[in-house]
Amino acid sequence: MIRFVIVTGMSGAGRNSVLRMLEDMGYFCIDNLPVRMIPKLTKVFISESKSMDRVALGIDIRNLQGLSELGDILGEMKEAGYRYEILFLEADSKVLVKRYKETRRNHPLALQGRVDKAIEEERKELAPIKKKADYILDTSHMLVRDLKQEIDKIFLDKEEYQNFFVTILSFGFKYGIPSDSDLVFDVRFLPNPYYIPELKPQTGNDRDVYEYVMDSEQAGVFLKQLYQMIRFLIPNYILEGKNQIVISIGCTGGKHRSVTIANALGKKMQELPYSLKIEHRDIGKDAILKK
User: What pLDDT, on the 0 to 100 scale, is given for residue 221?
Assistant: First the structure.
């Protein structure tokens, strides 16, 4: 049986990178194929299934006229018994604008207009396809290696892919609250290793600091209640239509307490069926600023 994958989503969200990753996995990849050719090409691939069992098609907003017909075409394919999967790549509008500025490329819908307006127009045009997607990846906070891990989970691993991405982000309040936070928690009430001479130069990634913070009664109670709340919130966020969440945990400098709690929460959340990433935004900033 051919594994037939359609890779689509927001321009600038990583479609080309994903197609290269799939090509490395042995997929026969075609980018920006006219939508009307999909059924004919599918028949060809099926006839060649002995030599070609994995196919990926990249479709984006450049195929604007064809996108309006894609739903009907996919419906016809399904009725004919052709199986397919849709991977939709999403990203925050501000992130997409930043990526376009960095690469100095033009958005397909921008022409001489503004990129931000083009992105919002594209989002509206792609909404029907997003609803049909089997997998939705939000690449706003992903490095290439993070994206590769998620693609491997979907297309290589045996485990069932969980379509929700959680980022646990530690930070220091003196450097500002992360602008992309969905939930923000202040752990400055916990015992501060900063005032212990032997712990001050260490971080929450070090065992001594971790144990110092977590040995306090407040830390244990806070972590337990925070975990219970997150377990309650995520299924409700999914029902609302969210596919990713950033949980920000802050202390004064983002080096000791916030890092410890972020690591402890991440450890507990590994048992949950969601894609998980832990980041420590400000863990090294004190050392850099003192140089």
Answer: 97
Domain boundaries, the chain: 3-155, 165-290
Query: Please, what's the b/e burial string for 145-182 (b: 16 or more CB within 10 A of its CB; e: otherwise)?
Result: ebbbebbebbbeeeeeeebbbbbbbbbbbebeebeebe
CA dihedral sign of residues 228, 230, 231, 235: positive
Structural tokens at position 112: 């001489």
Confidence of residue 106 (pLDDT cuts 50, 70, 90): confident
Distance CA 31, CA 195 (A): 57
CA-nearest of 165, 95, 102 to 123 is 95
- Of residues 182, 181, 205, the one with CA closest to residue 254: 205
Q: What is the mean pLDDT of the chain?
A: 85
Please provide the CATH number assigned to the domain covering 3-155. Answer: 3.40.50.300
Q: Which residues pair with 88 in a beta bridge?
A: 8, 136
- In the predicted model, what is the mean pLDDT of residues 53-68? 76
Phi, psi dihedral angles at 80 (to 5 degrees): -80, -5
Helical H segments across 2-143, by residue range? 15-24, 38-47, 64-79, 93-103, 115-132
Contact in structure between 135 and 161 (CB atoms under 8 Å): yes
**Local confidence band at 51 (pLDDT 50, 70, 90 cut-offs):** low
Q: Which residue has the higher pLDDT, 200 or 69?
A: 200
SS3 201: coil
Question: Given a cut of 80, is residue 95 above it in pLDDT?
Answer: yes
**Dihedral (CA of 183, 224, 163, 262) sign:** positive
